[in-house]
């Protein structure tokens, strides 16, 4: 009887650890298009992904980029500053060259991701309850004009939380091919994120 009680308590503690390891975050979606190797390699010399860009990273793993403002981010933030002259004032960039991210220590790290609801307040759709695995292959820098030009401060209409521009939010930009595995919502998602092995 005592052994059974101890075993049950151990199982409860283990279950609590799994839940405690997950953190809240948000997900946007992007099409991670493959580049020819020479183009990818040249891109990595200043700002690019640390793994060849592709929606699929093999073995059912989806590509993702992590916001450098995320609490989960390790290392120095990406270089550069927000420069309004790189924006057209209507939500797009006119000079879309991204900053260097030489200290992106999460590159190659995998996370389990599960939808917890609609970030946009959608009432039609639902989370699937399925957990997917993503691999961090790139950064989503707050100093990238393709991100900050979207927000109202620079003439765009996208909320900072949906553009890798919200400090203190664990934001992942996930391969668009993962969207249907997570939910039937049309927009962006609230998610749970938990580090895992690749």
Summarize the SSE layout with pairings:
Elements: H1 2-21, E1 23-30, H2 37-44, E2 61-67, E3 110-118, E4 131-140, H3 145-148, E5 171-175, H4 179-182, E6 189-196
Parallel strand pairs: 1-5, 2-4
Antiparallel strand pairs: 1-6, 2-5, 3-4, 3-6
Give a written overview of the molecule.
- The longest helix is centred in the first third of the chain and has 20 residues, at 2-21.
- It is built from four helices and six strands, in the order αβαβββαβαβ.
- The model is unreliable at 1-19 and 35-47 (pLDDT under 50).
- It is α/β, with parallel strands linked by helices.
- The protein has a six-stranded mixed beta barrel with strand order 1-5-2-4-3-6.
- Helix content is 18%, strand content 24%.
- It has helices at 2-21, 37-44, 145-148, 179-182; strands at 23-30, 61-67, 110-118, 131-140, 171-175, 189-196.
- It is globular.
